[in-house]
Amino acid sequence: MTMPLTAATAGPAAPAGDADWWRSAVIYQVYVRSFADSNGDGVGDLQGVRSRLDYLAELGVDALWFTPWYPSPLADGGYDVADYRDIHPAFGTLADAEQLIEDAAARGIRTIIDIVPNHVSHEHPWFREALAAGPGSPERERFWFRPGRGENGAEKPNDWVSEFTGEPWTRTTNPDGTPGDWYLHLFTPEQPDLNWNHPDVRREHEEILRFWFDRGVAGVRIDSAAQLMKHPELPDYPAEPGPGEHPHIDRDELHELYRSWRRIAESYDDPRVLVGEIWLPDAQRFAAYLRPDEMHTAFNFDFMTRPWDAAELRASIELMLRVHAPVGAPSTWVLSNHDVTRPVTRYGREDSGFAFRKKRFGTPSDRELGTRRARAAALLTAALPGSLYLYQGDELGLPEAELPVAVLQDPMHFRSGGIDPGRDGCRVPLPWRGLAEPFGFSPASATAAPWLPQPADWSGLTVEAQEADPASMLALYRRALGIRRAEPALHRSALEWVDAGPEAIAFRRGDGFLSITNLGPAPIELPPHESILLASAPLDGGRLAADATAWLRTAPPAEPTAP
C-alpha cells in the first residue's frame, strides 16, 4: 500500500484559476469500466481515459468525476471498496491515476473522485479481521455486529430494510460452526456498514481524504452522504420519525462530521471541494448540508426524477433555487448518472419521470421523441444557474440498452427477484468508432468482448459518426458548452423568469441572454430577440418547435430616462 505524500512532496495541483470554479463548472462523470479500454481485455481503464482527454477538453468540461476506481470485488460496481489508497488492477495502477490527474490538469480539467464512507467491501482488511476476531472483539466495533432476536438469536436485530430491497442483516458463523452474530449492510451483504461512532473510522477517512488531495484531486463526491450515522441502539423504525429522528438517514450528527471534512478541504492552498450524494425529500434538511462550513454542493436529484412537463420542471427549478439561496450554495443540475435510466429512453416513455421502484423490463419508449426531448433538456439544464453534471454517453444521445438477462450483473436486478432490470443498461461501454462491436471501445487487437454487450444499432451513435454530422447530439453539446463557457451571464447571473405561456419554461440570465423551452405539443412564438445563439431543433415556420429549446441573444434592457 503506497504511503500518503507529505505536504512538501505533494502531487500536482489542480488547474490554477478561480477558487469558486465549482459554482458554475461543467463536470463530466466517468464510469471507468465503460469509458475506453486501452489493453483489449474488454474493461475500461485509466489509460483509456488518458487517451481520450483531448476529446473531453474539446467537449468543454471543467472537471471529471470518477466513480470508484479502487480495488474491489465489484459486487456493486466498485462501491464495495477493498482498499481506498490504490487502483483496481483492471483499471491500472496508482501511478496511472497520478499521471491521469496531472495530464487532465494540463488541459485545464480538474479531477473529482468518489469517496464511499458508509461501507467497505467484505474483502476489506478491517472486515476480515472482524470476522476472524469473533463476537465482542474490538475489531468488530468498527462495524455493526449484533446478536439476533428471538430464540437462539435466529431473528434479525431490527426491522430495517436494505436500499437494494431484501434484508440488511446477514448472520455470521462462529469458528465452531454454530450461528453467530449478525452484521448490518444497508446495501449488499458484500458491503458491511461502518460504525461512524468509532474513532478509527473517522481517523481513517480523514487520512484517505488527505491521501488523494495530496495527489492533486480537486474534490470528492461523497457517496450515500446522508446514511453514515446510525442511532447507536439500532432501534426499529419509529412510526412517524420527526426531522433527524430516522435511525440511519439524515442524522443530525452528520453535520459535525462534514464540518471537520470541510476544514481539511480548506487547509490546502487551492481548497478542495466536497460534493454530497444526498437523496432527501425534505428540501430544508437537504440544504442544511450546504451551509458555508459544510459541503460545497450536493446532487440535485429532484429535477432528474421529474416528468417532461413544464409545470413539474419549473416547480423543481424554483424549489432548488429557493432552497439553495439562504445557504449561498449553487444548485447542481443533472439529467442522469450511472444509476438512472438515460434521458433519451426516459423522455420517450409515457411516464417520463424516474423512480427506482418503477423500473421494469420491456417498458416501451419512442426513441425519436426521447432524443428530441433530451436535446431540449440538455440546453435547458446548461442554461440554469449553478454547476452542470454530464454522464458519459449522454453527449452522444445514447439510449438505455435493453440487455439479455443472462448478461446482467447489477445486484439491484438479482435482489429484486428478477423484476427490476437493474442499472446495467446505462453502463454499457461507449461507442467511439466503427460499424460493429466493440465500436472502438477496445483496440482492434482486443482479446475479449466488452464486459457488457453493445447494441448493434449503435454504429450511428459513435463519436466518429457524430463528428461528421453538424446536427448530431455531440455537436449540440459541444456548441452548448462552448457558449456556456464564453457567455458571462451563464457563470454568475441570477435567473429572471419570462412568461412564455403555460407549456414553456423561459428565463433571462444577465443582460442579453434568454433561454426558452417548449414542452407543449405545438410550436410557439419566440420572445423578441436579436439573434438565435443555439437551438436544439430547427424552427418550425419561424416558431420554436415542440420539445425544443432555443438560446436567444436579446437586447439589453433600456436605461431608465431621467425625469
Automatic annotation (TrEMBL):
Q: Which GO terms describe its biological process?
A: oligosaccharide catabolic process
Every Glycosyl hydrolase family 13 catalytic domain range: 29-427
Which SUPFAM superfamilies would you find in this protein's record? (Trans)glycosidases
Entries under Pfam families matching the protein: Alpha-amylase (PF00128)
- What GO MF annotations does this protein's record show? alpha-amylase activity
Family, as annotated: Belongs to the glycosyl hydrolase 13 family.
According to UniProt, the name of this protein is: Alpha-glucosidase
Q: What is the lineage of its organism?
A: Bacteria, Bacillati, Actinomycetota, Actinomycetes, Micrococcales
